[in-house]
Amino acid sequence: MTGDVREPEAGSTGTEYAGLGDWTPETLTVPGEVRAVVAAPHQALSRAGGEVDPTSAETVRLAADLIATMRVSPGCVGLAAPQIGVGARVFAVDVTGHPKAVTVHGTFALCNARVVEATRWKPGREGCMSVPDLTGDVKRASRLVVEGELPGSGATVRLVTDGFEARALQHEIDHCAGLLFLDRVAGAHAIYQRKVYL
To answer: Is 172 a catalytic residue?
Structure first.
């Protein structure tokens, strides 16, 4: 719901929530640097990231680096700070052009994101750059409402999405909490050797 302003739900603080609006990676005004992606069992992947100041120069640069790294990584639709060894609640997502995507908000980064509504749970296959040899079946919400802050402006946004983009967001929020998709599978029977390497 790009650009919409939504009224807060009953019991909230009265803050208005805007969509992504005119935010683009170029809004960050700094070039991103491609960073090395760490693989399990790297310790950064199992630690919850800390909250960040979305307006700080350090956070803005981190968001730019995540977007730059995601863009040069074939098949990558999301990347979180712990995947480049940084313990912070920041991630980037872009499901544009993915055949399973229905709702698409383009390329964006969020800080301190949290799920505020999750419904219509469905299983689906997931892979991860930090677990390059495996995929797994994970049950995720197919309709999702997420609140977070935009790097740079610090504006609070409420993003409503579904399907594959919802899955990607949940995957990245998990990374920021120190969880891999392997922590969400139903058991060993739901883990598979990756057949195609991107």
So the answer is: yes
